[in-house]
Amino acid sequence: MSDTTFDYIVIGAGTAGSLMANRLSADKRMRVLLIEAGRKDDYHWIHIPVGYLYCIGNPRTDWLYSTEPDAGLNGRTLRYPRGKTLGGSSSINGMIYMRGQSRDYDQWADLTGDDAWRWSNVLPAFKKHEDYYLGADELHGAGGEWRVEKQRLRWDILDAFAEAAVQAGVPRSTDFNRGSNEGVGYFQVNQKDGWRWNTAKAFLRPTCYGRPNFELWTGAQVSRLIFDSHADGSHRCTGVQVWDGHEMVIAHATRETILCAGSIGSPQILQLSGVGPADLLRQHGIDVVRDAPGVGANLQDHLQIRAVYKVKDAPTLNVLASSLYGKAKIGLEYVLRRTGPMSMAPSQLGAFTRSSPAYEWPNLEYHVQPLSLDAFGEPLHSFPAFTASVCNLNPTSRGTVRIKSPRFEDAPAIAPNYLSTDEDRKVAADSLRVTRRIASQPALARYSPEEWKPGPQYQSDEELARLAGDIATTIFHPVGTTKMGADNDPMAVLDARMRVRGIDGLRVVDAGAMPTITSGNTNSPTLMMAEKAAAWVREATAERV
């Protein structure tokens, strides 16, 4: 840390930050600093796919956030995992490659007033870094850094669920990433030869590590941004204050500071730095640089309702992993072939469908697993079972992320406000009915599925919505807390090019910039956003050089 002046400072070496650092340091004239609060991704469980079980809730790899007590969850709090290591949440997530639906991006274009976000214009950014296992076509790329493969396993019980979904009116799908993800099929995953493929492998090693103009600080937490304020009321971000574990260090950015700390970390850093709701900042004794009420607002997340069905005469992971012999067999298969349960993403089978015919597009996503447990990190149940988790893809509930103190070490208050609208409660109740309709089809009959959770005795909208609050949990997709928007949107923190309004030299490039949540898993859309932002930053550089 002897030379602390750079052209660009990127905060957060997660999904977006790793790509940003790669693209910006490709210009040898530009010095790039990448700052990561966590450690290097040299923990072995990061790289073994099933290792997410040992990374979530582990201070080695997770920020260990929790939500505030939530009325929609009947007063419960939830563990709220976020990656704290190189690769960020791509090092602990479900590895599912999912773009969402084309209408998501057309809506972003309408909300921001910028056609750059239309599906036809974001598709090239998805393809640029993609390495699709079937090769390139009009909708997929090959040869990029972000490896996409099919899963290296199958399960009879999942095949039966897929057939039951077809019998219930859901079409089959072999690719959820072609603009419409309606259908049922196995998810594609970000893996390579049976190993997790995180963004640190994809974008930092070996390219960035070999560049003399690239510098990486790990175990370094940004405490606040630094601004130059001028007499005319304008402000410019000129760098960051960083705690390196021993002392505070100031790093300077001569061109731009790019905040990629995620939907929780980015609004926290902005608020600690004086950019956020003025009343909140004054409450904590923080000088207001810019009153920005949208910072930490608009939190959206996918809430999954985990229905568990006991089955008979079906090999599930509950059974296979119940003995030392079974565990040894699973481990040996992975060692020898990189296949089997240790290569599993947390969810293997997916389905996209409608909660009712009133919806023009699929508004539900299923994650179906050949196992059951009370919660991630808890033991598997002793009986054979599968779990059909269903989430509302387009929730109307909105939450907040707000600092609780002026100390950067203190986690913010995360209040998702799940199921806080009538529409979300209705979709929750209807989604459980869709699950029951699928489970009652002939394809699953041979396994005698028995609804164990929530239980068939609950039937009314009110009962099912209340039960959803009892059994639902996050699927780890927080977005929207520093949203992009049009000039006339007072809650828009960013303009359409992800520049912070009212602050020069500062962008936020992460899932927090999404104005609305995508209709599926959020990791790869975040990469796409970083790809577009990197191009805009480099264009701005070219104009000034």
UniProtKB/TrEMBL annotation:
Protein name: GMC family oxidoreductase N-terminal domain-containing protein
Superkingdom: Bacteria
Keywords: FAD, Flavoprotein
Glucose-methanol-choline oxidoreductase N-terminal domain residues: 83-106, 262-276
The family this protein is said to belong to: Belongs to the GMC oxidoreductase family.
InterPro entries from the UniProt entry: FAD/NAD-bd_sf, GMC_OxRdtase, GMC_OxRdtase_N, GMC_OxRtase_C
Requisite cofactors: FAD
Pfam families, per database record: GMC_oxred_C (PF05199), GMC_oxred_N (PF00732)
Native source species: Variovorax ureilyticus
